[in-house]
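User: Could you write out the 3D structure of this protein bound to oxa(dethia)-CoA? I've included everything you need below.
Assistant: Certainly. Input first, then the structure.
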Amino acid sequence: MPRAAIAGIGSYLPEDRLTNADLERMVDTSDEWILTRTGIAERRVVAAGEATSDLAVRAARAALADAGIDGAGIDLLIVATSTPDTLIPATACRVQAELGLTCPAFDVNAACSGFVYALQVGVTVIESGRARTVLVVGADAMTRFIDFTDRGTCILFGDGAGAVVLRASEEAGVLGIALGADGTGAEMLKVPAGGSALPLAQQVLDARQQYLTMSGNEVFKFAVRVIPKAAREALKASGATAADLTWLVPHQANQRIIDTVADRLHMPHERVFSNVAATGNTSAASIPVALDDLYTSGRLSAGDLVAVVGFGAGVTWGAAVVRWTKSRSSEET
Ligand code: UT7
């Protein structure tokens, strides 16, 4: 059976920054409150006219360049997003056209767990022999769905995209994946309007129901319970333990969640990656952006063992254990 390994990685964050000082001018909050409760200092925000597909295309191009292949070699494109350019068609189709690909393309919506879900699909397709090379993108423009009068949510989210090229290989790169969902938690985190349940109408817009609502405390408790569980399941499926990990890369949602999870998994904090201070929560982009950050900053080497773990609306969760097989070209030269 062919196995799947990460052959290329790339990411993109939009130029515009939204700092805590900016938010202080918009809602009743403070830099100190945001830093203490979340660890976030700033986030990146899409520009006027920029959409999720634009972020995805930039990240995908970087991943293709890193893998040293052009689009002709891609057999399947999957975009994980919950903030599509439009409900119809899939954002993946816009990305496919922009990249000049001819392969099948579709979206996966598992909110902030979306990248791990899409990774599972890509890995399974490669292991089945139906494809040799799959482009997996996690991209979200969360700020388009955030109510910037709601201090409980607007401080948390940012925009971005990350992508990996998965390729068939003799040795497994992606060793094990564990996914889960519990739809009874659907109300915890949602965008109430804009779908078939509550189509957009003036009354809906007046009530600001096109924006994300969240029960922050409930999500926090869910996250610190489910992340260690998912990580342990993926580690078990990979025949590894937390002690074997070079890095744990959790979904970048809140530094307090990251620290609590590190403690529950008995991981030294210096081996638990965080860039949430600079990105905020970029939803499906958060894990591939974090991985790319580690890789491009030279902190990820061939042979390292990495666990990534996400959680999000649905509620959903997912973890993957990856043997990193790439060396950076700058390390090689
Ligand atoms: O991908 C998944 C996405 N979601 C998450 O990861 C969210 C997980 N949850 C969280 O990160 C945290 O629950 C929050 C950061 C959202 C909130 O932190 P918290 O420590 O759970 O605060 P809280 O909701 O219990 O609120 C404490 C107080 C409240 O005031 P009172 O009722 O004690 O007077 C809030 O009204 O803080 C107030 N508050 C704020 N104050 C200043 C809430 N938001 C803010 C704010 N600035 N931005």
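The chain has two domains: 3-171, 175-325.
User: Perfect, thank you.
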